[in-house]
Description:
Layout: E1 4-9, H1 15-24, E2 28-31, H2 32-39, H3 45-54, E3 59-60, E4 63-64, H4 66-73, H5 77-104, E5 109-112, E6 127-132, H6 135-146, H7 150-158, H8 163-169, E7 172-175, H9 180-194
Binding site for ATP: 12-17
Catalytic activity: 3'-dephospho-CoA + ATP = ADP + CoA + H(+)
Enzyme class: transferase
Amino acid sequence: MAKVIGLTGGIATGKSTVSRILQDKGFCIVDADVASRKAVEKGSVGLQQVKEVFGEDAIIDGEMNRQYIGSIVFKDSTMREKLNNIIHPIVRTIMDKEKEEALNHGKNVIMDIPLLFENKLQNTVDETWLVYTDQETQIQRLKERNQLSDEEAEARIQSQIPIDEKKALADCIIDNNGSLEDLHQNIDDLLNNKALNL
């Protein structure tokens, strides 16, 4: 029977890379980030609601000004909650539809959800897989990827549950402290262990 797996991680732990590898192996990926972009795409109800809460500066060329919104919500938990209250219900509807379509075709589904534990979505999946790196690696990768200062990188990491707390909550851990080759091997080992090779 097809399984629904919740894939999560911390910011800059390499979850997107793991997601791509699993997609190459034949899993159907339902991606919360993609659904989030659809939820506030040009002309959407979601985008209109964002404008009402965050003002004119929240929109640039008819699209959500992600940099502006990010600069607010990573520092202000009340505004982050307001944004989540707009986007999350729309995202859930989009993702549920994609998940049902995949299950109807008998495919194993990876629900790629960065804030799976923060939003207490464990009960919506059969099991949870966490892409794990230690916090030092997280900070280093985030600084390199987004050209952030130590302070900015740490603020973004602090906006999520600490990675070691997530590690304790997850059913399976995919270690990504090593090389890309190591990561491929760790994923293969997990799939063999779970008898989930497609």
